[in-house]
């Protein structure tokens, strides 16, 4: 039997992985704890581990996994900024991921944030429940012909461009690799500076790495239009949270939609509603009326969970058979 420990396991992970596990040779053990170097000893006796976005696979953790004889790390997500890939390779620890499960799921959630913020749906919902039918303060703006900056035009960014085209938005894109599909759609590649200066809405869809860490900072924020709408459904570390709060206070940012947060690993995916809040920056952010935050749920559709489970299982089955594709991270 090939034994796999599933870390950060939620009930839905268990359901989708179990329902799709048709391989008789693979046995899952579901562990709610997040994987860090402190919890890594739980991986003893397992052939492989399966992890998610906020598990921390740094050198210390990888050393423990290696010493325990773990052979394969199956990420059940697309992003891999939480794994020290180079170090894993030196330990001969094979890593797989789910490069594309449903870019539309995240793009549609991005659109949901844009539309909700613009039309103040999060405010209106509460007002109507309290018999307050006043429209004061709920004025929105038409998306028609507005300029949207899309940073990162890979699978999710291009799915968003397709949706925005339907709203007749002017779409300005930035990516280190330009795609013909994007220009064929009528979108225009420009510099980051052009996006900061001209976009009414800016949406982030590039990976978190050394080049992109804190790409939204005091300097870039300063160059943006007053009242800009900023949306981040990619990774929290793309934004300097302190600079963001300052830009909300000065009204440089008029609307902020986040599905990810720089320090989310200590907060997201768990119920903290009965605890004394411990993250002052998060509470400051969440307190602004023009901020809408969801807890990393962009991926969370039936179709995406199904695809995540089947691809993860296929990666695990390949690993069990000793087939380790080395192109997974190039997709
Ligand atoms: P992708 O690899 O298809 O696209 C990423 C794009 O970013 C590529 O075109 C790449 O060239 C570009 N890029 C790389 N470096 C860049 C830079 N310095 N500046 C601008 N662009 C750069 O990835 P994807 O599937 O579209 O996912 C994008 C990101 O979305 C992932 O990295 C992940 O962090 C995030 N994500 C979030 C959720 C969620 O639930 N919120 C789910 C899946 C993925």
From TrEMBL:
Q: Which UniProt keywords apply?
A: NAD, Oxidoreductase
Family the UniProt entry places it in: Belongs to the D-isomer specific 2-hydroxyacid dehydrogenase family.
Q: Which residues form the D-isomer specific 2-hydroxyacid dehydrogenase NAD-binding domain?
A: 111-298
Family matches, as CDD domains: LDH_like_2 (cd12183)
Tell me the ranges covered by the D-isomer specific 2-hydroxyacid dehydrogenase catalytic domain, including all copies: 4-323
| InterPro entries xref list | D-isomer_2_OHA_DH_cat_dom (IPR006139), D-isomer_DH_CS (IPR029753), D-isomer_DH_CS1 (IPR029752), D-isomer_DH_NAD-bd (IPR006140), D-LDH-like (IPR058205), NAD(P)-bd_dom_sf (IPR036291)
Q: Write the protein's name.
A: 2-hydroxyacid dehydrogenase
**Which species does this protein come from?**
Fluctibacter corallii
Q: Do the record's keywords include Phosphoprotein?
A: no
């Amino acid at each position: 039997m090939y034994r796999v420990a599933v870390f950060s396991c939620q009930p839905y992970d268990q359901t989708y992985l179990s329902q799709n596990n048709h391989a008789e040779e693979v046995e899952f053990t579901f562990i709610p704890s997040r994987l860090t170097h402190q919890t890594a000893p739980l991986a003893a006796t397992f052939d492989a581990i399966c992890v998610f976005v906020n598990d921390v696979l740094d050198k210390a953790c990888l050393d423990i996994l290696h010493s325990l004889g773990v052979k394969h790390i199956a990420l059940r997500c697309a992003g891999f900024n939480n794994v020290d890939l180079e170090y894993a390779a030196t330990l001969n620890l094979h890593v797989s991921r789910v490069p594309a499960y449903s870019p539309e799921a995240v793009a549609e959630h991005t659109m949901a944030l844009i539309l909700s913020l613009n039309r103040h749906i999060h405010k209106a919902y509460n007002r109507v429940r309290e018999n307050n039918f006043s429209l004061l303060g709920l004025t929105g703006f038409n998306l028609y012909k507005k300029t949207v900056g899309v940073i990162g035009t890979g699978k999710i960014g291009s799915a968003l461009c397709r949706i925005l085209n339907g709203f007749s938005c002017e779409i300005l894109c930035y990516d280190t690799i330009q795609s013909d599909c994007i220009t064929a759609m009528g979108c225009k590649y420009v510099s980051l500076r052009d996006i900061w200066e001209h976009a009414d809405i800016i949406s982030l869809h590039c990976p978190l790495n050394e080049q992109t860490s804190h790409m939204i900072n005091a300097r870039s924020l300063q160059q943006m239009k007053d009242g800009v709408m900023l949306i981040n459904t990619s990774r929290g570390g793309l934004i300097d949270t302190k600079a963001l709060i300052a830009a909300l206070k000065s009204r440089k940012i008029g609307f902020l939609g986040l599905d990810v947060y720089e320090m989310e690993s200590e907060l997201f995916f768990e119920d903290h509603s009965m605890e004394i809040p411990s993250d002052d920056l998060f509470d400051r952010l969440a307190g602004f009326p023009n901020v809408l935050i969801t807890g990393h749920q962009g991926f969370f559709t039936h179709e995406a969970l199904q695809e995540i489970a089947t691809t993860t299982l296929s990666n695990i089955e390949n690993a069990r058979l000793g087939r380790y594709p080395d192109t997974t991270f190039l997709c």
